[in-house]
Amino acid sequence: MWTKSLTVSALFLAYILTLTYPDITCIRLVSLNVPARVKEGSEVQLSCLYDLGNASLYSLKWFYRNHKNPEEREFFRYTPRGKPVKQVFPLEGINVDFYKSEGGTVFLTEANGMTSGNYKCEISVEGTFQTVFAEKLMTVDGMLKH
Predict the structure, then answer these.
(1) Residue 113's CB: how many other CB atoms inside 10 A?
(2) pTM to 2 decimal places
(3) 19 in a domain, yes or no?
(4) What are phi and psi of 71, to 5 degrees?
(5) DSSP readout, 41-103?
(6) Which of 17, 20, 42, 76 is the most exposed place for a label (fewest CB within 10 A)?
(7) Does residue 1 sit within a domain?
(8) H or E stretch covering 6
(9) Phi then psi for 133, rounded to 5 degrees?
(10) How far apart are CA 135 and CA 11, in angstroms?
(11) What is the CA radius of gyration of the chain?
(12) Ig-like domain: from which residue to which, for each copy (predicted)?
């Protein structure tokens, strides 16, 4: 049960947090575009759209996992103030087009059976390092053989 003193204490704490962290914002992952099915050998575009409010992006990372590798592993990182700004981490079946990939958009080339799996986009902001993420499954369909 809320008492008057508890309510006043909660409001005071909220006020102090607002003064201490004036840039507190609510970041939002607007959409994660990962095609559900793609053809083997095709190029795939993954995109992660976000709204940072008044915050600045610290990093945007892409992760991957599948039935053979159930532990998620990072394969692409974008840090606008980092050196380097973008990094690719080699993973079997994940062929990133480094030159076309930028920000929240990653291009994968030569999709194959190992490319099938769960793709996760994770966004963090500077200062508070508030983080949001979303994940979707993509399946690569093999070529029909005659």
Answers:
(1) 14
(2) 0.80
(3) no
(4) -85, 125
(5) T--EEEEEEEE-TT--EEEEEEEEE-SS--S-EEEEEE-TTSSSSEEE--BTTB-B-TTT-BT
(6) 20
(7) no
(8) helix 4-20
(9) -155, 165
(10) 35
(11) 20
(12) 22-139
Q: Residue 44 maps to which CATH number?
A: 2.60.40.10
Q: What is the spatial distance between Cα 81 and Cα 92, in angstroms, rounded to a whole number?
A: 28
List per-residue pLDDT tens for the chain, 146 residues long: 445 554 445 444 444 444 455 555 689 999 999 999 999 999 999 999 999 999 999 999 999 999 888 999 999 999 999 999 999 999 999 999 999 999 999 999 999 999 999 999 999 999 999 999 999 999 999 854 43
Number of domains observed in the structure of the chain: 1
Token pair 């369909």: residue: 141
3-state class (DSSP) for residue 110: coil
- Secondary structure letter of residue 143 according to DSSP: P
